[in-house]
Structure formats: C-alpha cells, structure tokens
Design goal:
alpha/beta; Arc Repressor Mutant, subunit A; Rossmann fold; 16 helices; 14 strands; five-stranded parallel sheet; six-stranded mixed sheet; single chain; disordered C terminus
Length: 395
C-alpha cells in the first residue's frame, strides 16, 4: 500500500469528531485508507446484502453491537443509518467512534447534512498525488508517463495497463453511479458526452456547445455535469470574484479529477502519443489543478482554488485565495521557459496595482528557480513532500 497523506488528517479529525467521513471517486483508495488508519476498528461493508438487510431492519441493534464504533463502508447504501448514528453518537460521545466511507457524493453528503451536521469531520480523497507516488519511489519516470497513467491506486498496486483498467472503470463504476443517480436510456450517448468533456478539460464550460455536440438538451447536459461532479470524475473551477475594475467571465472551467482518465477518454493509447498530442497542454493543466486540489481536500480543507479571466481574454490559470492574499499561478506544459510565459502574470499585477506581486509559474521542466517576483516550479515539486502551497503568502 502507498501511504496516503490523508492518514494524518483522519487521525487529527478523529481526535475531535465522533464521526469521520471519507468520500471521493470509486477506487481512489477510501476503504484501504480507512483500514490502514484505524486498524483496530471492526469493518462493515454495506455492499454486503445481508449486512445491508440488517441495517435496514434493525439499525439500532447493528450500531449497539459495536460500542467502540466501526468502519461503515459505502454507508450511502443504507441511508436510514444516518439518523440512528446521530442518536448513537449523541448519547455516547467519544471522538473517532465511526468512520464512514462513500463513493456517491449526493448520498453521503445529503445524509450527513440532514442528520450528522456538526458531528462529522470530512476528507475528500482523490487518486494518488505526485508527492505520494514520489515518497514511495513510484512516480513515473517522465511527465508524459504520468499524464498517461494518472493516479488511481490500482495502476500502481497491480500489473495493469491504464487502457485495460480505465475501460473497466468506466463500465463498472461510472455507468453504475450514473444509473443510480439519473435515468440514462442510451449509455453510448453518455459515453460520448464523457469524451466531449475530456476534450474540454482545462477550458471554459459551455453547456450549450457541449449539448449540441452530443445531440442532447441543455438541461440534460447540465444534469449530467452535476452527476460527473458528484461522482468526482470532474471538478468545476469557479472564477474569482475580485474584478480589478474589469468585467469578468462567470462560467466555470471544467477539469477532470484524474488526468489519466481524461487521456484514456481522448483515445491516447501509450505515453509516446502524449508528446505531440494537441491536448497535451490542457492535460498538463488538468494534472496541476488536480494536484493542488488534492492538497486542499486531503488536508480536510475546502478548495481555495479559482481562475481569473476578464472579458478581453486576459486569464490567470489559477488564483490561490489565502485570507486577504491572492497568489496568481500560470501553468505551462513546456520544459523550456519562454519569454512570454509570465506576460499574463505581469499584466495581472499591474491591474492589481501591485507590481511586486509574488507569483508562480508551474511548468513541465525540472529546475526550480526565481525570476524577479515569479517562482518557477517544476511539475515534480507540485504537491511534493516539501509542499509548494504555502500556508501564508503574505511573507
């Protein structure tokens, strides 16, 4: 097992909350993480039909059978347990009693918000990050291999090719979740929708254009986007609201939470095809956004990531909001830094009225150095053990 950074987060939350929940996409390692972090707790999977039947018929007896608590895996399969959990933890309060896992964001979060609000510490677990792979000497040897493979643990624990694994993943997990959440009559149309979303990863989300390309209605496209976001297949990056006296775009940008899945949906069959692929820049941006998102979510924090774009097309790929401080970030896939890579950062600083604005440029090269007020950060350092996201940008 590759050690997860979220293990420390779960231990911290279990010292203060009676219930800790782990959610995220299917096969991101939630069950493995829960068992490794809490090895002395009993493990109950609500995927087991007999156990689920007991939870439905006599939930109080099920919970009282475990006075020290337990790991309840895929708890959204037995939603009536949430109300009984509330009563149980309120009458015998001690921290870290129950550990909940769930793949379906709608089912888990709706149960928590209705019955367990204020009693739950939450971790959203995405696939393996660059730092986690690097710490275990499992990071692919070059950038194109990482863009091709992504971070799902199964690809690093077993002798599997990404092509074989992603094909089964889409069929077994994504389509299963989709059918649970919405009525999709034609799965081939939904698969085409998925591929169209992958082709747009790193771009502004235009639902009308997406719907037209897939032959579906605008409302259907909006519903399907919500399902993909709820299943942690995509993440919608919101624009930052600070306008600097300029009109801003209001549409979010769409990113896949795992770059390997996006690459597979684009029909990339081997790492060598990545080198000159037309979508390589967008896939690299997808990788970096997902890595910085992991730093927030795996630490139990909400995302502080935004992008910034005005009506004239000036765009900053990422803006990190930390208190009153904003840190602009540009993302470039090239291994060599070109003179114009920092142009938008300089223009943004001028609009901001702060020519000494500190900024980052994350790129596809190997050397870390500073150029003026911009720090050049290679891809290997993103989400590494030293961490590139500071806790305070004011100093």
């Amino acid at each position: 097992m590759i050690k997860r950074t979220s293990e420390q987060t779960l231990q911290r939350l279990a010292r203060g909350f009676p219930v800790v929940a782990i959610t995220g996409p299917r096969q991101s390692g939630k069950t493995t993480l829960a068992k490794a972090t809490f090895p002395n707790k009993s493990y109950l999977s609500l995927e087991d039909p007999d156990l689920r039947a007991l939870a439905e018929a006599d939930p109080r007896r099920l919970l009282t059978a475990y006075p020290e608590g337990a790991i309840l895996d895929e708890i959204q399969r037995a939603p009536q347990l949430f109300s009984y959990l509330q009563t149980h933890v309120d009458t015998s309060v001690h921290p870290g009693m129950f550990i909940l896992t769930g793949s379906q964001q709608f089912g888990l979060l709706s149960g928590i918000s209705q019955s367990l609000a204020g009693r739950v510490g939450m971790v959203q677990l995405l696939p393996l990050g660059i730092g986690e792979l690097s710490d275990e000497s499992r990071l692919p040897g070059n950038l194109d291999e990482l863009l091709f493979s992504g971070g799902y643990p199964a690809l690093y624990d077993r002798d599997l090719s990404p092509g074989d694994w992603f094909a089964g993943y889409i069929t077994t997990y994504v389509e299963r979740d989709v059918r649970q959440l919405i009525n999709v009559r034609d799965l081939s149309t939904f698969q085409r929708f998925l591929r169209m979303c992958a082709a747009r990863s790193g771009q502004l989300l235009n639902l009308s254009s997406l719907a037209a390309d897939c032959g579906i209605t605008h409302n259907t496209a909006a519903a399907w986007i919500s399902v993909l976001e709820a299943s942690y297949i995509i993440h919608l990056l919101r624009p930052h609201y600070r306008n600097f006296n300029k009109r801003l775009v209001k549409s979010p940008k769409i990113y896949f939470c795992d770059v390997g899945l996006a690459a597979w949906l684009l029909g990339i069959h081997k790492p060598e095809e990545m080198t000159f692929h037309a979508q390589r820049g967008n896939l690299f941006e997808t990788l970096i956004v997902s890595e910085l998102l992991k730093q927030c979510w795996h630490d139990g924090r909400p995302s502080n990531l935004y992008f910034w774009r005005d009506s004239k097309g000036l765009e900053i790929d990422l803006v990190l909001e930390q208190g009153e401080q904003l840190l602009p970030i540009e993302i470039k896939s090239g291994a060599t830094i070109a003179a114009d890579f920092t142009d938008n950062l300089k223009k943004w600083s001028q609009l901001n009225g702060n020519p000494q604005q500190q900024s980052w440029l994350i790129y596809g090269g190997e050397q870390r150095f500073a150029s003026g007020t911009t720090e050049m950060i290679p891809w290997r350092h993103v989400n590494g053990s030293d961490g590139v996201v500071p806790t305070d940008t004011s100093g």
